[in-house]
Amino acid sequence: MSGAGPELYPGELPSWAVFKFPPDSAPAALAPPVADHYSFRNPIPIPENVYNAVLHPYVPLTIATTYAVSISTLNWWNRKHGNKPWKISKTRAFHAFVIFHNVLLAVYSAVTCWAMVRSLKHSIPHYTEHNAVVGAVDALCKIHGPRGLGDAVTYSNNLNRWESKNANIRIDSSGLPESTDVGRIWNEGLAWWGWVFYLSKFYEVLDTAIIIMKGKRSSTLQTYHHAGAMLSMWSGIRYMSPPIWMFALVNSGIHAMMYTYYTLSALRIRVPNRIKRTLTTMQITQFLVGVVFAACHLFVSYTVPVSVPYNVAEKVLSKVNVSSIASAASSATSSAVVAPATGVAIAFLKKMIYRAAGDEGLAENVYQPGSSSPASFSGATSNNNNQAQHPIHDTVNRIVYRTEYQHVPCIDTSGQAFAIYLNLIYLAPLTVLFVRFFIKSYIKRTSPNARNPTKHEAITKSARDAMRGVDREVESFGKSAEDGFSTAIMNGASALRGRATKPNGDGRVSQELEKIGEDEQSTKQRAKKIAKDVVGTAEAEAEKAKKGGNA
């Protein structure tokens, strides 16, 4: 598409080709460039084989599944034993580790947040630059190559190779973008800091381990968040999906504040409850904003300037007979020859002016007075009439470049699209629950029978109610899942001991009896205690009667 300048096209439907599942494995994630000197964007070199090994899909899937099953089992175990703190949680070493863990994650998250801010600062054009809006969209959509509108390097699924709209942008000998290119988000820090942030999601499960060892119940929302974050960061970095920078930036920023709060709490420094509520609000807001921002990438396209080569046919002077030139020169004083010659010069100057202005089309249409040839000396004569009649111009082809504006989508590969809709699948349940509870609460607060709070108050309180509703709904689902999981474990253990599994009805009764302390084991212990008490009482009475008889 050509036009007078770059244009933005929001709301366009994406191509169905990017929704391929499973997504194409190509291209592989590009490891951070290795610099000759220390660079904040790539502090420590990461070998390419190591970089891609931990991005294998089995790594996050295995860890996330193991984590979710383990926490569900430990929640059930703690509840069965009265949610008593573990012995290790009462030691000084455990308390010191908790403080170290929270300080480490608070500092690391703050540094990661700054690294992502720096990456954006070096990638997005200043608002005062020409075409700053489309340039900013291009910087956020195309994360490889040098900075500049239309200078990005992208992967073509159709051609199975990296390429650039700008013919002057180089691809290295291995067919990959030049590692020395800077000015785009990937090489400006996302490749290194995003990969490390992905790995940090595995370490963060220690948050849940600390809660479990304190005898508390890990919330289902926390378990869901940790497991989902592993998969979200993995897909974003593995497929180099453009919106993953936001997850790294916003999530690390919130975590910096959250772990600072945890550190203060571990040091027994009182923090107002409203701080905790604010952090919870920010986390849920992160879900809502993230799902909208990621989805927008699928529905955005724009135009970029592209130099397109064209073949232009031109007539140039090839052969000139010496006698013809002499004859033309000798007759140049006559007005019949001077006038056409002057017209040729003017036409030539016009062509030069049009070409200098970039208007090749106009230059091609300029004709010479008295002849279709740009420099024909039709009035020239020679003693050799045969030579004078020969044409003195040949037609040659010349390549000229014109700037056109071509349409490009924000998302190029099926892998990039997969990372986006995986994040949408992860965030959609929380978003739907939040919106449902918010609407219910807002309608209730603005109904005719309710008081008349201001619109701001109604929105604020409805959002708070919605967050509580989300937490309550997720927790209810989590406890039901834990009950079902614990029942499966107990039935499996019974089967291994060689006892038949009880019917469903008896199983439910056993669960209810266990909850109120009337299960089989508790009943046996209580019966033994009663029997012991009865025997003791009888022996005491007998001893008493014996003493009375002796008296």
Rg value? 39 Å
What share of residues is helical? 55-70%
As a percent range, the share of strand residues is: 5-15%
The number of distinct β-strands equals 5
Uncertain spans: 332-341, 358-362, 364-388
Order of helices and strands: EHHHHEEHHHHHEHHHHEHHHH
Biggest sheet overview:
3 strands, antiparallel
Question: What is the global morphology?
Answer: elongated
Oligomeric state of the chains in view: single chain
Terminal Cα span? 121 Å
Mean pLDDT: 78
The number of helical elements comes to: 17
Query: Which structural class matches the secondary elements?
Result: mainly alpha
Domains (count) = 3
Read across the widest sheet, the strand sequence of neighbours is 1-4-5
How does this structure look, described?
With 551 residues, this protein is mainly α. The chain folds into three domains: 8-153 and 179-304 and 411-415, no CATH class; 319-391; 514-550. 58% of the residues lie in helices and 8% in strands. It has 17 helices and five strands. The chain has helices spanning 48-53, 58-80, 92-123, 132-141, 186-203, 206-213, 220-238, 244-266, 273-296, 322-330, 335-356, 360-364, 385-389, 414-445, 455-496, 504-515, 520-550; strands at 8-10, 153-156, 161-164, 300-317, 393-409. The strands form two sheets. A three-stranded antiparallel β-sheet has the order 1-4-5, covered by helices on one side. A two-stranded antiparallel sheet has the order 2-3. Helix 3 runs antiparallel to helix 5, helix 3 (92-123) packs antiparallel against helix 8 and helix 5 crosses helix 8. The protein is elongated, with a radius of gyration of 39 Å. The N and C termini lie far apart (121 Å). Mean pLDDT is 78; it is low at 332-341, 358-362 and 364-388.
